Amino acid sequence: MWPGYALRSLGLFLCVAALLFALGGLVQINPIWQWGPYAPYLGTNGAQPDWYLGWLIGALRLMPHFDVVIGGYTLIPNRFWGGVLFLALVFGFLYGWPAIERRLERDHAQHNLLDRPRDNPRRTAVGGAVFAWVATIFFAGAADRAFVQFGVPYEGQLWGYRAASILVPIATYFLTRWVCERLREDEGHPGRGSGARAVARNREGGFEELSAERAGVAEADRG
Q1: Quick check: 121 and 101 in contact, CB under 8 A?
Q2: Residue 75 parent element (H or E)
Q3: Is there a domain that residue 120 lies in?
Q4: What does the pLDDT look like over 133-183, one tens digit per residue?
Q5: What is the largest CA-CA distance in the chain?
Q6: For residue 110, what is the DSSP state?
Q7: How many other C-beta atoms are found inside a 10 Å radius of the C-beta of residue 120?
Q8: Domain span holding position 178
Q9: What residues are paired with 73 via a beta bridge?
């Protein structure tokens, strides 16, 4: 580490610092003085956050107006549900799912190899449903842009996304689980779903193609 890598790291730090200082002094960024004074009437609707805030903005927009008010004091404002609780639910589920799955499956053994999606249909379906839920709320964050670009009524979009945030994850769960179970079932039938064929050596030393029934019997005898 010393002195070779320490000196290299110090040299890299000085080069990066010099580049940043040069960019700050020579490159023009956002020349607002060329645009004149600010005029509110020139601003357009269609607020759109950065992509990494899309799901947060979508959650804030989809949450109906609901404040917890006791004695004239607002204890829990409406922003809490979409801005804090939604994030806590998503990250809490991601962190807690391994422990939840171990309890559901009653499998506390150590596994060093990853399963394919079809090997555990329920896990894959739950992951697909959570992704579909977050993705639906993410797209709701661009409701303003859809209103400006395509003229879709904003209120109608909100109610549509609210319904989709419930129905889409449920449909995704059952569809994903059905697909995974079908793929797992097809593995027991050689040749189904692909161009593969099961063959066996005959008494003359050659090979002959087996029917699906004979291939299943041969697989059962070998197991």
Answers
A1: no
A2: strand 73-76
A3: yes
A4: 999 999 999 888 888 888 899 999 999 999 999 999 999 999 999 999 999
A5: 94
A6: -
A7: 16
A8: 41-186
A9: 70
The span from the first CA to the last CA of the chain, in angstroms, equals: 56
Q: Is residue 108 a part of any domain in this protein?
A: yes
Judge whether 194 lies within some domain: no
Query: Any alpha helices (H) in 27-142, and if so which ranges?
Result: 54-62, 78-80, 86-105, 121-140
What is the reported pTM? 0.66
**CA 201-205-206 angle, 5° bins:** 65
The span from the CA of 159 to the CA of 143, in Å, is 11
Using CA atoms, how far residue 117 sits from 112, 124, 181, in Å, is 16, 6, 10
Give the Cβ contact number of residue 40 at 10 Å.
Answer: 5
Number of domains in the chain: 1
101 in a domain, yes or no? yes
DSSP 3-state assignment of 70? strand
User: Amino acid letter at 2?
Assistant: W
